[in-house]
Specification:
The model has no long low-confidence stretch (mean pLDDT 92). Helices cover 40% and strands 15% of the residues. The chain folds into three domains: 164 residues, Rossmann fold (3-Layer(aba) Sandwich); 157 residues, 3-Layer(aba) Sandwich (Rossmann fold), CATH 3.40.50; 197 residues, Thiamin diphosphate (ThDP)-binding fold, Pyr/PP domains (Rossmann fold), CATH 3.40.50. The protein has a six-stranded parallel beta sheet, sandwiched between helices. By secondary structure, the chain is an alpha/beta fold. The termini are far apart. The chain contains 21 helices and 18 strands.
Length: 567
């Protein structure tokens, strides 16, 4: 039978501008599936593995900058969404999760595929709703409509995942002679009002600004934004202060931008770099990759620390926050440019730029004379990526190498990484979502553990011809060999590094990807000559390296940078 209240969900979603739904097969969710598949304004994709499906949806939502619907059946299927939902929560990516459920009277009755699904995602969603089971009464129909409208409004205006649990009674399959219709339904829109700062408050902030000689901006993870980049560019030109940006900040070409902080802010150089500490620190964005930067700012606290964000979350990760200014960063810097007066201390900016330049020169020379390793290979690949590519860095070493090396200055590249929870579980899938959402080249940098963990990202029937994957295979979790604690333990290889013998060739064959393997600089150079050219399928380069050598080379690099500043 046609469950019209379920079909109305799809109509409300489409009217609110939701264009894409990711569906995992199931029976209890049949009505939800058919409602979205049959709606003329919604594109649907089938991803069998719910964990992959949710990360793929997140990748698409990042690109579309609007909610993507996720649909699954009842039971453990819903739990498989959880890692991606947590990631989306901390990255503030909008997802509308629709889980089919058994009627509540069957919970805890040992009925198949029946678990406790109400509030299943806990505090990692902005809101959680339960649909009524009985929907014949007009009040119940009104309730269903209100829930969907409210959920989409929350998801869109506050940017994050929202869950609707939908209990469905049998029968839920339509008869062959039943006509499907999508009548007009009530849609409730929300008009966001961006908070404004009073002129006197601007003047007060400007007066505070003028009291400080050492001022700096630090940018954590942020999506690419032309409006923010333009505002920051004008601000930087006028203020003349250092802007320190992680690779995931997507602000690579600002005037005087500092991107080598991870290399020169070694804790052993705290005394040497004491003079770099700002007395006024302005931060925007979410997580910072650079542990060295975080430790430096925690150990050298500013007199004032302003965080600029419209989010409801209080980000005090540097432990010295003095003022939360609730406004969109692009609005703040556009307006505050009028209140900063002349340029800041040239000598202070010069100190940061000198340290930054020292690292750039040192790194160039370092790569000329070192043995082949994943560090060197990573440098070669990242400087070979095509202009306007979308780069996704898996967690562990891939994102760390990216933050140390940075992206080429002469290319417009957009960077993504799952740094909300920093897990390895959905890197492939998120990159697949990005690739499915547009035609630009998408390049995934990943280690072997993250790659093999998420192979089901490719288990579907959609072409990924714009996806390029670089797998750095050191046959284990090489990062544990670089962390002081694990590397000193006799159980390192088995219980931390987790040695494995897999290679990516079988995965490439399973899914029809082009495959290349290399284990030295010469072979890698040859592979890269054609790797980014157009093709009918995705491509993989697997770079085989030795974990012990990788560790030695990275330690040599860190020692070289340390010695340069000690001298």
């Amino acid at each position: 039978m046609i469950l019209q209240h379920i079909y109305d969900i799809a109509t409300i979603c489409a009217t609110h501008g939701i264009e894409t739904a990711i569906i995992s097969p199931g029976s209890r969710s049949a009505a939800l599936t058919l409602a979205f598949v049959r709606h003329p304004k919604i594109e649907t994709k089938v991803i069998p593995d719910e964990r992959s499906a949710a990360f793929i949806a997140m990748g698409i939502a990042q690109q579309q900058k609007k909610p993507v619907a996720l649909i699954c059946t009842s039971g453990s299927a819903a739990y498989n969404y959880a890692p991606a939902i947590a990631e989306a929560f901390y990255q503030e990516v909008p997802l509308l999760i629709l889980t089919a459920d058994r009627p509540p009277e069957w919970t805890n009755q040992y009925d198949g595929q029946t678990i406790q699904q109400s509030n299943i995602y806990g505090k990692h969603v902005l809101a959680s709703y339960d649909f009524p089971v009985e929907v014949n009464h007009n009040d119940a129909k009104w309730h269903c409509n209100r829930i969907v409208n409210e959920a989409i409004g929350t998801c869109t205006n506050h940017q994050g995942p929202v869950h609707i649990n939908v209990p469905i009674r049998e029968p839920f399959y339509p008869d062959s002679n039943e006509l499907v219709s999508f009548p007009q339904v009530r849609v409730i829109t929300t008009t966001p009002i961006h908070g404004a700062i009073d002129r006197m408050d601007w003047i007060d902030l400007g007066n505070k600004w003028q009291k400080h000689q050492k001022k700096a901006i630090v940018i954590g993870q942020m999506p690419s934004s032309k409006a923010l980049h333009s505002a920051l560019y004008r601000f930087a030109e006028k203020a003349g202060i250092p802007i320190i940006a992680d690779v995931i900040a997507n602000q690579h070409d600002l005037p005087g931008v500092i991107h080598n902080q991870d290399s020169f802010l070694n804790p052993q150089l705290n005394t040497t770099h004491k003079g770099l500490a700002p007395t006024l620190l302005i931060t925007i964005g979410k997580s910072l990759i650079s542990k060295n930067l975080k430790l430096y700012l925690r150990n050298n606290p500013p007199q004032e620390h302003w965080h600029i964000s419209s989010s409801e979350k209080l980000n005090d990760s540097l432990q010295h926050l003095t003022e939360l200014i609730k406004i969109e960063p692009e609005i703040f810097f556009s307006e505050f440019t009028h209140y900063v007066g002349g340029k800041g201390s040239f000598s202070y900016l010069n100190q940061w730029q000198k340290a930054n330049h020292t690292i750039e020169e040192l790194r160039t020379e370092f790569f000329k004379m070192r043995r082949f390793s994943e560090f060197q290979a990573f440098n070669s690949v990242i400087h070979s990526v095509p202009d306007k590519a979308k780069l996704h860095f898996a967690n562990s070493m891939a994102i760390r190498y990216a933050n140390i090396i940075g992206t080429p200055k002469n290319k417009q590249l957009e960077v993504f990484a799952n740094r909300g929870t920093s897990g390895i579980d959905g890197s492939n899938s998120t990159a697949v979502g990005v690739a499915l959402s547009q035609k630009l080249p998408v390049v995934l940098f990943t280690g072997d553990m993250a790659f093999f963990y998420d192979r089901n990202a490719f288990w579907h029937n959609y072409n990924l011809k714009n996806l390029r994957i670089i797998v750095f295979n050191n046959h284990g979790g090489g990062i544990f060999r670089m962390i002081d604690g694990p590397k000193r333990q006799p159980e390192l290889e088995e219980y931390f590094e987790t040695k494995q013998k897999l290679n990516a060739e079988n995965t490439a064959n399973d899914f029809g990807f082009e495959y290349h393997s290399c284990s030295n600089q010469k072979d890698l150079k040859e592979c890269l000559q054609t790797f980014f050219e157009s093709s009918k399928n995705a491509k993989i380069i697997e770079i085989q390296t030795n974990s012990e050598r990788n560790t030695e080379v990275l330690m040599e690099y860190k020692k070289t940078t340390l010695d340069a500043f000690k001298a």
